[in-house]
Each structure stands twice: as structure tokens, then as C-alpha cells.
Amino acid sequence: MRSPGVRLYLLLVALPVLAIAFVLHRGAGLAASPALGVPAAGGAHGAAHGPAGTGVSFALLLGQLLVVLAATRACGFLLRRIGQPHVVGEMLAGILLGPSLFGLLAPSAAAALFPPQGFALLGSLSQVGMVLYMFLVGMDLDTSALREKSGAALLTSHTSIAVPFALGTALALGLYHRFAPPGVAFVPFALFLGAALSVTAFPVLARILAEKDMLRAPLGALALSAAAVDDVTAWTILAAITVYVRSAGAEAVPWTSLAGLGVFVAAGYFLRRPLRRSVARAFARAGTMTQGQIAVLVGLALAGALVTELLGVHALFGAFFVGLTLASERRLAEAARERLESALVVVLVPLYFAFTGLRTRLDLLVGPDLWGWAIAIIGVAVAGKLGGSALAARLSGVPGRDALVLGALLNTRGLMELVILNIGLDLGVLSLELFSIMVLMAFTTTLMTSPLLSLLRVPRTA
Fold first, then answer.
1. Are 139 and 323 in contact (CB under 8 A)?
2. Is the pLDDT of residue 374 over 80?
3. Residue 440's closest CA among 368, 363, 360?
4. Separation of alpha carbons 184 and 373, rounded Å
5. Chain-wide mean pLDDT for the chain?
6. Where are the domains of the chain?
7. How many other CB atoms are there within 10 angstroms of residue 151's CB atom?
8. For the domain 57-113+120-455, what is the CATH code?
9. Taking the chain, what is the end-to-end CA distance rounded to the nearest angstrom?
């Protein structure tokens, strides 16, 4: 595998970035249009981010937890039987519990189990789970692998972001007047659409590689490295977009937020080594992960999340970044995952799927027009992510079939896509129609990964 040159990087990454800038410049003059009869995200059909849920009984919350747990485990078990990763079943369960199916078949029962006033509490619990989960995702990134495979992994990853991002912003020109919420300018709308099309789900990818016995294979290592670069790059882009969107319409540039974010990142960079040493020494002395050490790690995750939330970025970015500062301590990361991951994956993360499903309105996608846009978005997402990364890998010297396998793996969006979509809906950048189409895209692209790998006859670890 040859190291990609500067010209190749300029062709596959810099050219799409220039295309993004051109589209944003052309679209900046488009006037925002009123919504076309679509209920707002906080409306009666799914109060996505309404007022705090007062009056929601603890018994109801326990009932919601039981139903979500049973649905996600059942769907995960069934999907595993047909060769899909468990997370695909969890995504499906979240959609089925929402107004797309449960709300249609049994509206009274759905309203009683998931009343709009209970959304805020359910959403808060799911967000806490995601904060800790993103902290573990950051810790689980193998930064040494990034350095060892910096050439092909960097080119493939950045191409797999730049190409779908450029296609997404171009697609936004056609989607803007049809799907943008009232008062939303073109640039934030296009930026969020591009970001949503360009993400890869690193945790889901790692699970698929483990199930396919590919973690130790050269192609699996390259896929993980590219996905790790993808995650770091995508979250950095998302943080910048979030600050931009939250400051849109403000009279002054949010210098306080930008400066605070810079201080936060710089502090993490300069304190990472002493922090790693102190945490690693405590872990080595005890010989195991103690409750005190778990409390310290959880406290660090919550502190990072609090800082970035107060800065106007997003809590998940802070938790992910703090986890990333500890990423080189592999034994510590594995021990933390063993102690925390089971409770998160079984209980709290499924709540995030359910919360997303309750906001998803596939019943709004009525008529050939909406389904045509849905097919177009899925097609652009696959062409940009799978096609772009496969092309970059092939031009880097990866054999043809392996390049397609790598593209199929990086096309996996899963949970990370849902995180971006929920942030976009919370910020009011995405309408419920477009949010629902994008959730369908995330599910479809994740669902297609395993069949594509089987079709391409992926070789297992040598």
C-alpha cells in the first residue's frame, strides 16, 4: 500500500472543500421560507424539546424503562439471528416505539406510556447515558494506530468526510425551501445536512469488525484507524457548526464561547500527560478498577460535558474530548469499559434510541414527493460515503475488493448519526420531516453493512 501524495489529497479532499464553500456562498442569499404544514419539533405530535416534564410519575418512568429494555433486547436478538449487529435492532426498536408504528397502531396506549410532558425527563436520562458513552468512545480510540497508519487512513477518512459533506451541501440547495424550518438560514441548514451525511459510527464499526473476526486483519485495522480519524474530525466540525448555529442572528461573534472552547482544548492538550500518568498510577497500584477510580472517570466526563454545554457547543463533545485525552492508556480504557459499558449499553443507550424514535415521524412521509426525497438522500449518503472512501482507498493502493469493503464499513452511521440528528433537531435546524428521513437513512446505511460484507466475501483474520 503506497503512501498517498499531496496531489491526491488536494484532489479528493481540498476540491470537495472548495465545492462546499462555493455552494454555501451561492446558497447564502436564499430567503428562508415558512414551513409547509409540518408540526414543529416541540408540537403536539412529539414535543422533542418542550418544557420540563412536571407531573410525570416515577411509576411511569419505570414502565417506560421496562418497555424500552424489552423492545431493544427483543429486536436486537431477532436482528442478530439474521446476521445484523445488535445495535441495528436497537435502532429499529426505537423507531417502532414511536409514532411511526406504536403511535399509529395504539395511539391511546402510546400517549399513556409516552406522554409529551414525559419527553424531557426521558431525554435527560438518555443524554446522561450518552455523555458517559461518548466518554468511553473517546477513551477507546487507539491513537497509536492513527500515527502508524496516518497516510492511507487520513486520506480515506478525510475523503469520506469531504465528499459526502460536499454532496450534502449541494443537495441542500434542493431541500432548503421544502424542508428547512421557518426562519432558518441556508448556511446552517446546509452545514448540518453535510455533517449528518459525513459521519461514521466508530463504536458500531468496531462491533461489526469483532463479529466478522476482522479486528486483527490489516483491512480491519485500516478501517478502525480511518473511522477513528473520522470521529475526531467529524466531532471537531460538529462543534464548530454548533457554535455557529447557536450564534446565528447574534449581533456579535461569540468570542466568549470560542475563547472558552480554545482554552478547554488547550488545557486538555497540555494536561493530558500528567492526567494520564496520575490515573494510570492509581490504576496500577490497585491492580483493578476501583469504585473511587470509576467515580473520578465519571466526574471527568461530566465536568468536560458541563464545560462545553455552558460554552454553547454540546455536552457530548466535552465528554468525548476528555475521553480522548486518556485514549493512550489502553489497559485503563479496557477496564473502564468493562465496568461501565454493560450498564450503559443495556439500559441508558437504548433510552437514546427510544427518545430518537419518539421524535421520528415516518407517518409524515406520505406521497411520492417525500419518498422520492428520502431515496435521493439515502442514495447521496451511500454514494458520498461508500464511494468516496472506496475511491480514496483504491487510489492509495488498496486492492479493489478491499477498497469496496472499506467503503462499506465507513458507510456505517448508527448511533453517531442519531446524535448529530438530535442536536440538529434541538437547535431547530432540521424539520421533523427531514429529521425522520435522516433517521431512516441512518438505519438503512447501518442495516446494509453486513449484507454488503457478505456479498463481497470479506476475508477473516489471517
1. yes
2. yes
3. 360
4. 20
5. 83
6. 57-113+120-455
7. 16
8. 1.20.1530.20
9. 18
